[in-house]
Amino acid sequence: MASGLMRDSAKKQSQPALWKRLLLPVQEDEERWLRFLRIFIGNILLTGAYAFITVPKIILNGGVTSFSLVMQAWTPWSVAFWVDVLTILLIIISYIFLGKSYFVGALFSSVCYMALFNLFHWMDYELPVPTLLGTPILATPIAAILVAAGYYFCISAKATAVSFDTIAMILNKRNARFDIATTMMVINIAVLLFGAATYSIVAVVCGLVFTVLQAQFLKLFLKLGGVEQVTE
Question: Fewest C-beta in 10 Å: which of 1, 90, 157, 178?
Answer without folding.
Answer: 1
